[in-house]
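Subject: for your reference before the review

Hello V.,

The reviewers asked for a structural picture of the protein, and I figured it would be easier to keep everything in one thread rather than splitting it across files. Below is the amino acid sequence we used in the manuscript, unchanged from the supplementary table.
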Amino acid sequence: RKAEYMRARTIFAFTARQEGITQQNIGDYLGLNHSTIHNMEKKMCDVFDVPSCWPDYIELYNLFTTAIL
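And here is what came back from the structure prediction:
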């Protein structure tokens, strides 16, 4: 449960949801419950609502989306 791994999983799950992959499929892939994926998605919505509180998530999200898109 290292913070950097949790951030990366959260951003991966959020990006996958934006691409239309179901919470269940993402959870199966990551070995997590779909409700955990739902909570990750909510956390990322908070990141975009209050970006000054979550600069590390914003920076990692920008790097991730730039690399895969």
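For the response letter, the relevant points are probably these. DSSP finds four helices and no strands in the chain. Residues 16 and 26 are 7 Å apart (CA to CA).

Happy to draft the paragraph if you're swamped.

O.
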